[in-house]
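For reproducibility, we list the full input for the flavin-adenine dinucleotide complex.
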Amino acid sequence: MITKSRLEESNTRYAQGGIAAAIGPDDSPAAHLRDTLRAGAGLVDREAARVLTSEAPARIADLVRYGVPFDTVEGQIALGQEAAHSRRRILHAGGDATGLSIEEALRGRVIDAGIEVRERTALRALRPGGRNGPTAVLSDSEGRHTEVLTSQPVVLATGGAGSLYRQSSNPSIATGEGVAIAFRAGALLTDMEFIQFHPTVFWREGAPRFLITEALRGEGAVLRNHAGDRFMPALHPDAELAPRDVVARAIDREILRTGHPCVYLDATAIPRDRLLTRFPSICRFLATHGIDPSRDPIPVTPAAHFMIGGVTTDLEGRTSVRRLYACGEVASTGVHGANRLASNSLLEGLVFGERVARQLSHPRDGGPRHTGPLVEIPWSPGAGRGREPSVFEEVRDLLWNDVGIVRSADGLGSALASLEELRGTAEPGQSEELPGPLANAVLTATLIARAALTRTESRGAHYRIDYPRHRREWVRHIGLRFSSRPSRGK
Ligand SMILES: Cc1cc2nc3c(=O)[nH]c(=O)nc-3n(C[C@H](O)[C@H](O)[C@H](O)COP(=O)(O)OP(=O)(O)OC[C@H]3O[C@@H](n4cnc5c(N)ncnc54)[C@H](O)[C@@H]3O)c2cc1C
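The corresponding predicted structure, in tokenized form, follows.
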């Protein structure tokens, strides 16, 4: 197992709200499936979602066996409610420290099992290998000491791309490198236009962003602008509990309309004791910024949160490259459709991760099938060495401003033109030098923008102001594939 930072550093570690599974007496995988299909706005792969929801209880039992201390009430696992779930089915641990608890338990298993772990080692490239799988090229975090692992199965579990955006809930490791590496190796990608934005991430100039979970709104917190006025009740019957994309767009509009850099989450109606027991990590974080949520409004902004698309896989985690597997946020299994149902992503990693493990023991040939439009993306060598950190900051601004919550053909076209210029600077030439993290950041950003320009409609997490409605002809997935033709600007 190799990981580019420390073993524990991951999106998983920061997950707060919980993990969904139909384990309650009034619940069933069929009900969980219905909610998942509804949230995904017509694009969920029904069979993948059936696997996700029906295997969820068994994977939760694994976690309990591994020692994840899920919160309980009277000896039973406590089940929380989240937006768009028709039942209470969200398991949580340590109040709002679910991801940390899961990550600690799994890390313990890895260490106990004596699995060799190489920290601060990055996957840099995948090259065609023999019958057994691709060849993986690794390097240390400074890009030195290149090492080659010859022809063997490779499982990509490299997570999402949230930190390619100026405002993000993700830690800095989440730059979507796995997507870029798989794309360069010829793997098919799908649904890259769907980036889910979380409506409420702590905002303060210069301070780190920190997710303020939706569950706080579930407990009664409301949104106000800087004048103290609520703006959600006028926009949606469910007000603050409207779907994530609706709330994120409303906050974005309010910020643009008022010119104030954030809005405020008012949790003062929730008793202090309840806030401290249900949201201990949030209360601790806010205290370091002098905020007591039982008295003070919390400044928040929307932020990039979850990469819905990624490397296309079938139900066994197989990609279109032989013996290259993908699972977790880097994979596009189709379970989220155009909009992820809250708390289904930790579950996706567990369910399909276990399926990949089974494939590794008993490999069978197969892979994903794609029936929607396939866009060939030209990507050719540049003239740079990818060493200018400013490239990364430019990518983050470009994505936030033009490939963000509200998109248009003009904005996307201009982002793609700027990304093409950055490609020249970040992408190495025909030399032996491997594309590094900056070149991969530019590539992943380009893939998101290109897919977003192709989808001329609004659906789920993808909103185009020039095409504000669903279009029937777009109940299809957009596939992206590498082409070695020279880039032409768009
Ligand atoms: C703040 C926050 C709150 C969330 N809350 C929830 C929630 O309540 N419920 C829920 O279901 N989901 C939640 N999510 C989403 C969920 O946490 C993630 O989708 C999920 O944990 C992703 O798991 P993963 O294993 O795919 O990726 P990660 O956990 O991000 O792990 C990816 C690993 O790959 C490593 N890596 C990346 N690139 C390379 C490379 N080139 N070479 C080597 N290593 C590499 C990274 O360092 C990292 O260790 C939340 C996410 C965030 C950020």
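DSSP finds twelve helices and 19 strands in the chain. The mean pLDDT is 94. Both points were considered when choosing residues for closer inspection.
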